[in-house]
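Q: Start with the shorter request: fold the first protein.
A: Done. Sequence, then structure:
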Amino acid sequence: MNNFFKLNNILILCFLFCFSTIASSEVSSQKNSVNMKHILEHIQAFYVDEVNTQKLNSSAVDSVLKQLDPYSEYLDEQELEDLFNITNGHYTGLGIEVEIRDEHIVIISSISNSPAAQAGLKQGDILLSVNGQTVINKPIKQVASLISKTKKSAVNLSIARSGFSTPISFEVERQLIELETVNSELDRAGYVYLRIMSFNNHTLHDVARHIAKLKNENGLPLRGLLLDLRDNPGGILDSAVAVSDLFLRNGIIVSTKGRFYDANHTFTANNDDILNGAPIVVLINKGSASAAEILAGALKDNKRATIVGTRSYGKGSVQSLIPLGNGQTALKLTTAKYYTPSGVSIDGVGITPDIAIVQSSLSQSDKIAIMKQSQGKENQSFTADFSDIQLVKAQKILKQ
C-alpha cells in the first residue's frame, strides 16, 4: 500500500464508534487551516510561559482526530516505536491488557510470567493511579504514556479490588516482554485445543508450528480443533488473513472498502487446509475483536467451522499508518471497513455465534457426567476446570 501500513486496533476500547462527515467548502477549509496556524504562532509569540510547540501541535492534531473515531490517533516517536515493537512480538512494559469500563481502566488479563502477573495483579482489578497520578476518567493512551515514560524502572500502581475496602498498592518493574500469541494442548483422542491471544507478525508461524508439533505427537491425522479466540483484542490484518488461509482451501477470507483506491481489496484463500477437513469449533466472546473477528467470520461464512460462545465485540474497521515528516511520527487513521465473506459489515454488531454458550456454572450432575466421559480415551477432556463452562461445552460440540 505504498506508504500505508494496514493494521487492526490492538487495544480493547469499551465503546462503539461512528464516523462524522463535515461538509465544507474549499475556502472555509483554507480559512480554518490558516486560523489554526495563526493561533499556534500567536501562542508561541505571546503566551506568558514558554511553550513546547511540537507538543502543542500534537494536541491540536489529537483534538481533530477525536472527532473522527476512537481508533484514529497521532503517534509520537515513542508511541510509534512501541506499536512496531508490539507487532513484532515484544515491548517494554508491565504485561497487562486493559479496557475502559464506566470511566475506569480495568485489567482484563495479565500476560503469563509478566511483571504484572508476578506482582499479583488480577483480572478485574481497577487501576486508580499511576505513580500517584489519578487515571480515573483518563484515556488508555494517556495511562499507557504515564507507564512507559516514567523515569524509574518500577511503577507504583494503586488498585481497587473486589473484596477490599481500601486501595492496594503494587510496585511493578517494567521489563522486556516477549509476547506469546499462541498456546496449545493435545488430548489422547487426537483433538487439539489452540488459543490465539492476539495477532502479530509471528502468529502465522506460531500457529503452523503448534499444529505441526501436535500432528507429530499424535502420530495420526488430528481429529479436530477447538480454536479459542476469547478476549483476543486483534492485531494485524495480514496476520488474521494468513491464519485464516491455513484452514481454508478456497473462498473469500475478508474484503476491505474505503474511499482511496488501495483501501479496497479482497483477500482469498490460496493454500491447502492444514487440518485436511477435520472439524473446527471456534470460541468467541465480547472480548473477541478486529482480527479475531476476521478469522471467526472467515471460518463461519465459508462453512468451515461452528462458532460458539457469545457475540463478539464488533470492531470492523482497518487502520493505516501514514508516516509524517521524516517518518519518526505517524497518523494511525481509519481508512477502511472490512466485510466478512458474505459481504456483511460487523462494525458495531459483532459476529453472532452459531451456538450461544454463556459463561455460567455447570450443574453437579453435568460435572459428574463429563467426569465419567473423560475416563475413556475417546472423550478425554482438555481441561478439568469446570468453571469454564464455555470451554467444556465447546469440547462436547467438537466431539459430537
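Q: Next, the second protein, separately.
A: Sequence, then structure:
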Amino acid sequence: MDQLQAIRAFARVVEAGSFTKAADTLGMPNASLTKAIQQLEAHLRVKLLLRTTRRVSVTPEGAQYYEKTQRLLKELDDVDASFSTAQSRPRGHLRIDTGSSTASMVLLPALPGFLARYPDIRVDLGVSDKHVNLIGDNIDCVIRGGALTDLSLVGRQIGRASWVTCATPAYLREYGMPKHPSELEEGHVIAHYLSTRTGRSLPLNFAKGREKLEIHGTRAVGVNESTAHVAAGLAGLGVIQTFKYAAAPHLTSGALVPIFDKWQPEPYPFYVVFPSNRYVSNRLRVFIDWAAELFAALD
C-alpha cells in the first residue's frame, strides 16, 4: 500500500463528499480510490468512512484522522516547496473559478499573456456567478467581488471595479432620460440582477457626496448571471446597473447610454479567495500577483 497516496485519496473523499468526484479530481479510477481507502482502513484497523448508495459520511475516527493528516500533508507540501528555488519556473495545474463577465471581459482576453509568461502552467477556468465549494470541488482559487464572509477562506484584494447605470437609446426615447435616481422608482422599469445566494433582486445603489440612495423600482426582468444581465439591458428590458468594464464596449458603440454620471456607488472590491488551510503554491502565487496587476488597470 502507498500510504501517502491513500491518505491523499481519503482526504479528497472527505473534502468532495463523494468517491466519484474525488476520483475525478485525482485523475484515478474509482476502483483504485476505493481499494486505497480500504487498504488504509485495514492498516489502521478502524473504519474511516461510511458509504451508502446516496452519500459518504465520515466516522468520528475518520474526522480525527483527517484533521491530523491534513497538518502532515501541509507540512510535506511546505518541505517540497522549500526545495524549489525562487528562480524555478512555476508549473502545474491551476483550477480557477470566476463570474461570467469577469471571465469574458477581463481574464480571458489577458490570459494569453499570462500563459506566455508561465508556459508550464495549465489553467482550467470555471465560469459561473454562483458561489462554489473551493474545497469540495478542488478549486485553487476564485475571483469574486464583495465582502468576505466565510472565515474558512483567505482573500487578497486585487482591485476595485467602477459601476455604471445605463440603458439603450430606444429605452430612453420611450421612457425619457431620468435626471435623478429617485425617478427610477416610478415611470421606469429596471432589469435587476438577482442574488445567486438568495434569488432576490439586488437594489440599485447611488451615492453623491454624503447622500446615498437605494432604488428598487419596478422589475421588468431579473437575471442571475452577469453577462446575461448586460444582454437584458441591450435588449431594452430596462435600466441596468453593472460593472463599467462589462458594459464598456456597448458604451463605446452607443448601444448603451450612461445615466447619472454624478451619482455613482462606491467601487466594488474584488478578491482572489482560497482556502485558509491550503498551501499557496508557486503557480497560485504568480497567478494572484498577475491578477492584481490586471485588476489594478480596471476603471
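Q: Describe the second briefly.
A: The radius of gyration is 24 Å. The chain has nine helices and 14 strands.
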